[in-house]
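Example A, followed by Example B.
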Amino acid sequence: MRSPSEPAGALPPAFDALLRAFERHLAAGRGLSPHTVRAYVGDADSLLAHVARCGIEVVGEVDISVIRAWLAIQHSAGHSRATIARRAASARALTAFAHERGLLQSDQGALLGTLKTRRELPEVLAVDEMLAVLGTRRDGRLADSQGPAGPAGSLDPAAALDLRDAAIMELLYATAVRVSELCGVDVGDVDASRRTIR
C-alpha cells in the first residue's frame, strides 16, 4: 500500500481525475490548510488504490463494503484510533464530493459510523502560573518593565521584544491558535475594537 505522500500515478484514469478534482475542491472550494489537504488527499489516494486492487475501476461502483474493508486494513496495520478516524473522515469527504459531482449514485461514506477517539484534556497552566511564565503582573505590564525608555516615548528594542514575546505567549495561551496561524498574523489581521484576530 502506498504511503499518503506517494503520487497517484498507478490509479485508473477515472480515480486519478477524481483525486485531482478532490484536491482542488479541498484547497480552493473549502479553503483548508495545505497540511489538511495533504492528509485528506493522501488518505483518498490510499482508499482509491485499495478500490482499484479490488478490481473496481469505475467510481460509481465504490460501495460501503469496500470502504469498510479499507478501514479494517488500516486497523489491522496498527494505526491509531485518531488516524483511522481521520481516514474515515477523508473517505466521507471523498464520497460526498463524488456524489455531488454525480459520480456516485448515493453517498456511500455517509453510511460509515463515526469512530470516537479517546481524547484526554491537556493539562493547562493556571492563570498565576502563566503570569509567572510571561513575567507579567496582573495588570498586564511586564514585571520588570519600567515603561518607555527611548526618545519620544518609544520602547527600547529589548523592551519591544519582551512585549512581542509576551503577546505571542498570551495569544497562544488564550486562543489555542496553531503556531503556523500565529506566524501568519499581520498587523492588519488585528481588530482592536472587537479584540479579535483573523
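Example B, a separate protein, is given below in the same form.
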Amino acid sequence: MKSHYNDPAAAQTIERRTYAIIVDNEPGVLARIAGLFSGRGYNIESLTVTETEHEKHLSRLTIITKGTPAVLDQIKAQLERLVPVHRVMDLTTTGPSIERELALVKVRGQGEHRMEALRLATAFGARPVDATLESFVFEITGASEDVERFISLMTAIGLVEVSR
C-alpha cells in the first residue's frame, strides 16, 4: 500500500563526516562520547584519540561516522553539549583535508610466496616491521582504497591477521 505522505528519511542520502573533538583529558571522557553514539544507535566507523596540549590537559578525538544530514547535525549538537567537550569541528565541511589509514598486516609464506609478499610490499610502499622464517608483519599507510587492495593481494599469498 502506497502512503500519501513523503518519507523524508528515504529522500535523504547517507553522508560520511569526520569530526575533530577537543575534550578534557580525563578518565571516562571517551566512554561518555562512545556512549552518546551507542545509546542513540549511531555507528563510529573510525576513532583516534591523543593528547594534544599537555599543559592544558586537552585531547583530540577524531571520529568518522555516517548518517543522513539531519542525523549528523544532531550528533554534532549533542557532542557540543557534553560537559568535557570544548569544541567540535566538522572537518568534512571546513575544506580539503588529508585522510590516511594505517594497517599492520601479518602474512605467512615461504619460498616464492615470501618473495612475492616482499615484492608487493615494496610496490605499495609497505615496510616490514617484523620478520620471522615463516612470516612478515608489514606496516602500510595510505588511502583506504590502497590499503584494501594491498590486503586483498596478501590474502592470496597467506594473510594471517590485519590490524587497521
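On Example B: The first strand starts at residue 15 and ends at 24.
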